[in-house]
Write a structure and sequence with these properties.
Length: 356
């Protein structure tokens, strides 16, 4: 069944909220992040307003660098509590429009609207309604992408910012992706981008046309996934955070990390805790979901459904590792990991069926 997926991402989220709190900041360069201390400050830019972006200021850049580019900006500390309040009001609005809803980070969410609208034209109208409601209620703008899957919807929401609305219908996917840099695809960071460039592959179109054997030779199973993505294929579902019948555990690291040993230890520990709970409930599970939250609060969930139901700890740990590994390629550190199992059947029933 063809799907219609929407990705909503707020524009310059923290900075726009600050501009609403203090209307005199509107139209001016605002930089939310560490204290610049007259150019001697440490720490990074959390987000610049679009006015500050004109000076070249970007999220994640050292605050001292921002000061060099734009000393006249209004510098503000991060007020997470306020942003989280606004975020939860916006998520409430968005949730109502979706059949399935997945919040991905403090300012973005996926909506599966396949059964809410008949076609992409109706989806576009719905997106306009959403934009209006958020503008009226919160005085904020967002950018929306609409596409047949999550991958394309996410790229589309970033295509025209701020206040953008980009629709990519099924038959437009290839044309849309082709000129974009490979970096736009999930799991392709700076390092992978450089390796691909050395192979003469710059755009997603180049990657789609490349010899698959060569890509797999160089990048293993991840390479196969790159090719699928380059061809616009992504079957991952919009996943509600709270599926009723699921068991999950998550943990926030003391310090953000990219150390594979620390992360795999955490995955193993969480898997063991989840496993204990499902054993005590005599459940077998089919679906494994992992959750990764990066230091900037960008959050991803990835799932896999096994062709069989199981309660073996090895199945859980192995698949959780496999789902996690693409996220370790990032340049961003990881703040939180989670493991969840769902799609249960009762172990009793399975026993009589399969004589386990
Ligand atoms: P983004 O959606 O990446 O950025 P944004 O909303 O500020 O701007 P855009 O219009 O390009 O979407 O991130 C959402 C919020 O997360 C952002 O307002 C601040 C925070 N954030 C950080 O603290 N550090 C970062 O490096 C990034 C990228 C975001
Ligand atoms: Mg945003």
């Amino acid at each position: 069944m063809p799907r219609i997926i929407m990705h909503v991402d707020m524009d310059a989220f923290f900075a726009s909220i600050e501009q609403n709190e203090n209307p005199e900041y509107r139209g001016k360069p605002v930089i939310v992040g560490a204290d610049p201390k007259n150019g001697k400050g440490r720490g990074v830019v959390s987000t610049p307003s679009y006015e500050a972006r004109k000076f070249g200021v970007r999220s994640g850049m050292p605050i001292s660098g921002a000061w060099k580019l734009c000393p006249q900006a209004i510098y503000l500390p991060v007020n997470f509590k306020l942003y989280e309040e606004v975020s939860s009001r916006i998520m409430k609005i968005l949730r109502r429009y979706a059949e399935k809803f997945e919040q991905v980070s403090i300012d973005e969410a996926f909506l599966d609207i396949s059964n809410k609208v008949k076609n992409f034209e109706e989806a576009k109208k719905l997106a306009e309604e959403i934009k209006n409601e958020i503008r009226e209620k919160e005085s904020l703008t967002c950018s929306i992408g609409i596409a047949p899957n999550k991958l394309i919807a996410k790229i589309a929401s970033g295509y025209k910012k701020p206040d953008g609305l980009t629709v990519v219908k099924e038959d437009e996917v290839k044309k849309f992706l082709s000129p974009l840099p490979v970096r736009e695809l999930w799991g392709i960071g700076r390092k992978t981008e450089q390796r691909l460039r050395k192979m003469g592959i710059k755009t997603i179109g180049d990657l789609a046309k490349a010899n698959p054997l060569r890509i797999v030779e160089n990048f293993g199973s991840l390479g196969a996934e790159f090719i699928r993505m380059a061809n616009g294929i992504d079957e991952s579902e919009v996943i509600e955070e709270w599926v009723v019948k699921s068991v999950g555990r998550e943990t926030t690291f003391e310090e953000d990390t990219l150390d594979p040993a620390i992360i795999s230890d955490a995955i193993e520990e969480l898997s063991k805790e989840v496993h204990e709970e499902i054993l005590s409930n005599k459940f077998l599970f089919k679906t494994i979901t992992i959750k990764i939250r990066y230091e900037d609060f960008e959050t991803h969930t990835h799932s896999k459904t096994l062709p069989f139901a199981t309660n073996r700890i090895e199945d859980l740990i192995e698949n959780a590792y496999e789902l996690t590994s693409p996220f370790l390629q990032s340049e961003k550190k990881i703040r939180l990991v989670g493991v969840r199992v769902s799609n249960f059947i009762s172990a009793e029933k399975q026993k009589t069926l399969a004589k386990l």
